[in-house]
Amino acid sequence: MKKPQGEVVSQPVQVQQPVQAPPKTEPKQEAVEQAPKQEAKEDTAEKEAPKAQGNADYDAEVKSPMVGTFYASPSPEEDVYVKVGDTVKEDSVVCIVEAMKLFNEIEAEVSGEIVEILVKDGELVEYGQPLFRVKSK
């Protein structure tokens, strides 16, 4: 007895291989490698700070309340808000910090004389970064 020979139809089989996550030790190594760089920057800033402190007699700092771009004047055509030697009051606007297209007027929050301007116009500033040094009256 002969068996009828039929046609065998098959489709290619796709084998899925499991996705492997990268080893968890690599991010830790990157973080460790980056940390000394940040510490080095902090050390440099600390070394530079005493030099700057020796240059100006001050007892207060106006700090940035947000991350953004520092502007010393309301527009490029206008004069700066304050210069070294200017007297400011607590509600005096000393600069603008732009964050996400919003221009935020920064007030001195201390009365006194501006003795040092620590940032340049158009410079990126961080939260809590000192912008001005003031000798209070």
TrEMBL record:
Q: Which UniProt key words apply to this protein?
A: Biotin, Fatty acid biosynthesis, Fatty acid metabolism, Lipid biosynthesis, Lipid metabolism
* Alphabetical list of Pfam families matching this protein: Biotin_lipoyl (PF00364)
**Which segments show compositional bias classed as Low complexity?**
1-23
Cellular component terms (Gene Ontology):
acetyl-CoA carboxylase complex
Function noted in UniProt: This protein is a component of the acetyl coenzyme A carboxylase complex; first, biotin carboxylase catalyzes the carboxylation of the carrier protein and then the transcarboxylase transfers the carboxyl group to form malonyl-CoA.
By its UniProt entry, which PANTHER family does this protein fall under? OXALOACETATE DECARBOXYLASE ALPHA CHAIN (PTHR45266)
Q: Write down what this protein is called.
A: Biotin carboxyl carrier protein of acetyl-CoA carboxylase
Gene name, per UniProt, is accB
